[in-house]
Amino acid sequence: MARGSWNDKPKVVPEAHQALDNLKYEIAKELGLPVKQGSEDYWGNLSSRDCGAVGGHMLRRMVNYAESAMSNGISIGGEKTTQRGNGAAGSEAEYMK
Asked: How many CA atoms lie within 13 A of 53 on its CB side?
C-alpha cells in the first residue's frame, strides 16, 4: 500500500479489526459468495457488486446493533446511559460529551 494511505493511522480499537473481519466473512457466507476466511483478503474473483453488497450488509447490521443498544439505554462502549434531553437524540451538547 502506498505511503500516506488512509490505513496507516493507529486504530482506536485494535480488536475491532478482527471482529469486523469475522462479520465480513459471515455475511459473505450468508450471501453465498465463494470466499474463505484466511484467504488474505483476496476478493479479486468477485464482482464489485458482490463486494459492495457485503459492505452494505455489514453497515446495516452495525446500524441495527447501535440502534437497539441505544433504545435499551446502553452506549456502544457497554456502559449504561440515562435518558436526557427532550428530543429523540437529546441536545447536541449531550451528544458531544
From this structure: 14
Q: pLDDT, tens digit, for every residue of 77-89?
A: 655 555 554 445 5
Following CA atoms 83, 85, 88, 93 in sequence, which dihedral angle do they give, to the nearest 10 degrees? -110
CA separation for the pair 42, 37 (Å, rounded): 10
State pTM to two decimals: 0.63
Ramachandran sector of residue 34 (left: φ over 0; alpha: ψ -120 to 50; beta: rest): beta
Q: How many CB atoms lie within 10 A of CB 54?
A: 21
Cβ distance 28 to 37 under 8 Å?
Answer: no
Contact 54, 31 (CB under 8 A): yes
Res. 23 pLDDT band, cuts 50 70 90: very high
Q: Map residue 74 onto helix, strand or coil.
A: strand
